[in-house]
Design brief:
This protein is α/β, with parallel strands linked by helices. The chain has 22 helices and seven strands.
C-alpha cells in the first residue's frame, strides 16, 4: 500500500503542455479539472496573498449557498482565470500538491489551458489583443514624428481619460515611452570590442543579445547598459539578427497559435547563433523564462527549442557563473549605497538563486534590501481599467517597503515592475534597472 502524505519533499516536476492534443481543448474536461483543483485550493488557501485569483475563488466559495466549490456557478470559474497572469509563484513557492504529488496540481498551466480555450471561444477583448501585439505597437509608435505624438498623448490627462473610456486602459497606469532610435539601431552604431572570448564553466564568453520588444522599443538604454557591462568584462556581444516578441504576452492571453508563430520566427535564428558558439542573454526575465521553460514545455520534442533552452541565461546568472571561475571584473569604481531590490516573479521561478543580489553585493559599501513580493504588473494586467486598482493593492507592500527604506536606488530586474513601484511612490524618484546600477558601479 502506498503511503499518503501531506505535501511533497521532492522537487516539483513540470509536465509538458499537451496543447497540440485534442483532449487539451475539451471544454467539459477543462471544467471538471477546474472544479477538482479549485476544491483542493479551497481546502488549502495558502496562496491567498499571491494574487487576486485566489481571493476571487475563495470569495466565490464563501458566498455560495453550499460554501463549497460545488456551489459556484460554472460561468463564474472564468473570474478566477481572468485574474491569473501566470506569474508561476503558486506552483514554485507555495503549493504543496504540485507533481510528483499524487494530486498533480499545476495551477498556472491549468489557467493557461483555460485561457487558451477561452481565447478560441472569443473571450479576449480587442484591447487585450492589441496590448499583447507588442511588436506591432512598437513599430507603429516608434515611427519618427509619430513617436513624439504618442509619448505626448500618453502624458496628457485628458487623452488618458479618453483612452480609459474607449479602450479600457486605466488613466493612472504608467505606460512605457516609445523610441524611434531602437536598441537594434543603437547596437548597429557600436564598434565591436577587440577581445578574444574566454570560456568559463558552461559559458563560452561571448553572447548574443535577444533585445526583447520592450528592450528594443521602450527602454533601449537597458540593453546598452548590458552591452557596456559585458564588454567591460571582456565578453563580446552581438545582437540576434532578426527577432520577434518572445511570445509571453500572447501566452498569457491564451493565443497559442501566435506563440507558435513567434517560435517559428525566433528559434531558428537563436539556434543558429548557439551552433556558432554564442551564448544567449535577454534583459527581461519574462523573455528568458519563455525560452527556458514555457516553449520547452510546449515543444518537448523539438531539438532546436531544447537547444535554445540550454543556451539562454539571465544576465546576472551569466556574470555570476563567470565570477565562479574567476572571470568577473570586480574593480568597482563607485558604491551604490542603499539599494531596494525587487526580485521579479519570472526571475524567481527560474530557480537560479538571487544572482542579481549576489553580484550587487560585491560592490563595496553597498547594502541590498531584497523584496520578494509580486508587483502585480504583468505587462498588461496593471494597465487594464478593471485591474489597475487591484494591481496597485498587490504592489502596496512592495512600494511601502521602498518608501520606508528611503534608498539611494531602487529597481527590479523586470523594468515594468520597477515602474509599477514608481507609481505607488510619492517621491517621484524613477527606478533604475540592476544592469544600470552595475554600469554605475563600474563607472562606465
Amino acid at each position: 500500500m502506498t503511503e499518503r502524505r501531506e505535501g511533497s519533499l521532492e522537487a516539483p516536476t513540470r509536465h509538458p503542455v499537451n496543447w497540440q492534443e485534442q483532449a487539451f481543448w475539451d471544454e467539459d474536461d477543462l471544467f471538471k479539472e477546474l472544479e477538482r483543483v479549485y476544491d483542493i485550493c479551497h481546502g488549502c488557501r495558502r496562496c491567498v496573498n499571491l494574487c487576486h485569483s485566489f481571493p476571487t475563488l475563495f470569495d466565490l466559495v464563501d458566498e455560495s449557498d453550499t460554501m463549497e466549490v460545488d456551489g459556484i456557478a460554472k460561468q463564474d470559474y472564468w473570474q478566477v482565470v481572468d485574474h491569473c497572469y501566470l506569474c508561476d509563484l503558486c506552483f514554485m513557492t507555495k503549493c504543496p500538491y504540485v507533481p510528483p504529488h499524487e494530486w498533480n496540481v499545476d495551477f498556472p498551466h491549468l489557467m493557461l489551458r483555460a485561457k487558451a480555450i477561452g481565447f478560441k471561444k472569443g473571450r479576449a477583448k480587442r484591447r487585450d489583443r492589441m496590448l499583447t501585439s507588442t511588436d506591432r505597437i512598437g513599430k507603429l509608435a516608434g515611427i519618427p514624428i509619430v513617436v513624439n505624438a504618442v509619448n505626448a498623448t500618453n502624458r496628457m490627462p485628458a487623452a488618458r481619460k479618453l483612452l480609459d473610456k474607449t479602450l479600457g486602459v486605466h488613466p493612472d497606469a504608467i505606460v512605457p515611452a516609445y523610441h524611434s532610435d531602437t536598441l537594434h539601431k543603437r547596437a548597429g552604431r557600436r564598434a565591436p570590442i577587440d577581445a578574444v572570448a574566454e570560456a568559463a564553466g558552461p559559458t563560452h564568453g561571448r553572447v548574443a543579445l535577444f533585445a526583447t520588444c520592450y528592450g528594443n522599443y521602450n527602454e533601449p538604454h537597458i540593453g546598452e547598459d548590458l552591452m557596456a557591462v559585458f564588454e567591460h568584462n571582456g565578453i563580446p556581444v552581438t545582437m540576434a539578427e532578426k527577432e520577434q516578441c518572445c511570445g509571453m504576452p500572447k501566452l498569457e492571453l491564451g493565443d497559442l497559435e501566435a506563440v507558435d508563430r513567434a517560435r517559428q520566427a525566433n528559434i531558428p535564428v537563436l539556434a543558429k547563433l548557439v551552433d556558432a558558439g554564442w551564448d544567449l542573454v535577454a534583459p527581461v526575465p519574462s523573455c528568458v523564462l519563455m525560452f527556458k521553460q514555457e516553449l520547452p514545455l510546449m515543444y518537448p520534442d523539438d531539438a532546436e527549442v531544447q537547444k535554445v533552452k540550454e543556451a539562454i541565461y539571465d544576465p546576472f546568472e551569466y556574470l555570476m557563473l563567470r565570477h565562479k571561475h574567476g572571470k568577473l571584473n570586480t574593480d568597482f569604481k563607485q558604491s551604490l549605497g542603499k539599494v531596494s531590490y525587487h526580485v521579479a516573479c519570472h526571475l524567481r521561478v527560474q530557480n537560479i538563486g538571487m544572482k542579481t543580489r549576489e553580484l550587487l553585493r560585491l560592490v563595496p559599501d553597498t547594502e541590498i534590501d531584497t523584496i520578494e513580493r509580486c508587483s502585480g504588473h504583468d505587462g498588461t494586467y496593471a494597465v487594464k481599467s478593471e485591474c489597475h486598482d487591484i494591481s496597485m493593492k498587490i504592489c502596496r507592500p512592495v512600494f511601502n517597503r521602498v518608501a520606508k527604506a528611503e534608498p539611494d536606488h531602487y529597481g527590479s530586474d523586470c523594468p515594468m515592475a520597477g515602474h509599477q513601484i514608481e507609481n505607488g511612490l510619492e517621491s517621484g524618484k524613477a527606478p533604475e534597472h540592476p544592469l544600470t546600477l552595475l554600469r554605475i558601479a563600474y563607472g562606465l
